[in-house]
Amino acid sequence: MRILGLDPGLAILGFGIIDVEGNRYKLVDYGIINTEPGVDFPKRLKILYDDLQFLIDRYSPDMVSMEELFFYKNITTAIKVAQARGVQVLCCENNNLPLYEFTPLQVKQSLTGYGRAEKTQVQAMVKSLLNMSEMPKPDDAADALALALCLSFAGKFKDEYLMR
């Protein structure tokens, strides 16, 4: 089973793709999709959609794990990030990909056993579970890999995946 993890954003969309077979995890790819602040907002949304579509076409994931939107102090930033996240959700939906959402607390709890774990602790678990030679960077890509692993641990997908 192939899982695509997404750490949604407007300027930076983190992605991580893993294969899961039983209790074995294999890193497929990870990275970020950037949009530049000087580019018109609608064009930035299109870049996010098109680049995410490219990843879906290239890697054919079975399901997607995405971070739930959390509270921002700056309402303008929150609205733009929410719109970018909506475009990412739409892309997954247009590809008939089951989408599961997790809070940062759930991801930390799932990977480290402690919901208030430090980012470096989560990254260390990602590195270990995926047998990586170094900590995944940048943070957005590491978070996306953690989201993919979280879904694999959650067991939410088992019944749905077996019904295919």
Descriptive keywords:
5 strands, single chain, alpha/beta, five-stranded mixed beta sheet, 49% helix, globular, 164 residues, 6 helices
Characterize the biggest β-sheet.
Answer: 5 strands, mixed
- List the strand order in the largest sheet: 3-2-1-4-5
Per DSSP E runs of 2 or more residues, the count of β-strands stands at 5
Helical amount among residues, as a percent range? 40-55%
**Rg measurement, Å:** 15 Å
List low-pLDDT spans.
none
Secondary structure class reads: alpha/beta
Chain-averaged pLDDT: 92
- End-to-end distance, in Å? 12 Å
The best one-word shape is globular
Give the topology string: H per helix, E per strand.
Answer: EEEHEHEHHHH
Counting DSSP H or I runs of 4 or more residues, the number of helices is 6
**Strand composition percent:** 15-25%
Question: What does this 3D model show about the protein?
Answer:
The protein has helices at residues 41-59, 75-94, 104-112, 119-129, 139-154, 158-162; strands at 2-7, 12-21, 24-34, 63-67, 99-102. The chain is of the alpha/beta class and 164 residues long. Strands 3-2-1-4-5 form a 5-stranded mixed β-sheet. Helix 1 (41-59) packs parallel to helix 2, helix 3 crosses helix 4 (119-129) and helix 4 packs across helix 5 (139-154). It starts with a strand and ends with a helix. The mean pLDDT is 92.
